[in-house]
Design a protein that fits this description.
The chain is α/β, with parallel strands linked by helices. The chain is built from three helices and six strands.
Length: about 180
């Protein structure tokens, strides 16, 4: 049941999440890439840390990536004809916030003494990370990678999940091809 719950909220990244982290091969001329395809059996590579993305979320991620690359002028073709192959990885990890603060302070002058209270609160939350790889098919070399992470939200509708995935993928591809926004 826990894996099903995690799979249902795979990358519902909050709006306050940080921007994407990306890296690329500076020797590559990205203008040469006009076509793309998905790695064969890409979904089989998405299990990390006992985490399995749900089929529904996988379709959302793939559609968002297809739409972003198409908007950038690339065409989806068969894997054996593509300039680049696309793969992605999703992971979820637990994090803990700990806050300690003083809740009061007092001093009395009619006797010696002071007092204050310290309160510590902890909150456990989950952070999802989506990593997208672009691999040159001819050389089988990774040429571009970007990742975005953020706090996961629970209890979202399917349309809210789709919107968050689309927004996250758009942010990830805001740095593709490299050089356009650097």
């Amino acid at each position: 049941m826990k894996n099903l719950l995690i799979a249902g909220v795979v990358l519902l990244l909050s709006a306050c999440a940080s921007g994407p982290d990306f890296d690329y091969d500076k020797s590559v001329n990205f203008a040469q890439y006009k076509t793309f395809a998905w790695f064969p059996d890409a979904s089989l590579t998405n299990a990390t840390n006992n985490y399995q993305i749900s089929e529904l979320m996988e379709r959302r991620v793939r559609q968002a990536v297809n739409d972003e690359l198409s908007a950038k002028g690339m065409s989806m073709v068969a894997a054996d004809q593509a300039d680049v192959l696309i793969n992605y990885h999703a992971s979820v990890e637990k994090k803990v916030d700990v806050d300690t603060f003083t809740t009061g302070y007092s001093a009395r002058w009619d006797y010696w003494g002071m007092g204050y209270n310290v309160q510590t609160t902890t909150r456990e939350y989950q952070v999802g990370t989506l990593v997208i790889d672009v691999v040159d098919r001819a050389s089988n070399q990774l040429v571009w990678r970007a990742a975005k992470e953020g706090r996961l939200k629970k209890n979202q509708t399917p349309s809210e999940r789709t919107a968050v995935i689309r927004e996250s993928v758009a942010e990830i591809f805001s740095n593709y091809p490299p050089g356009t926004n650097q």
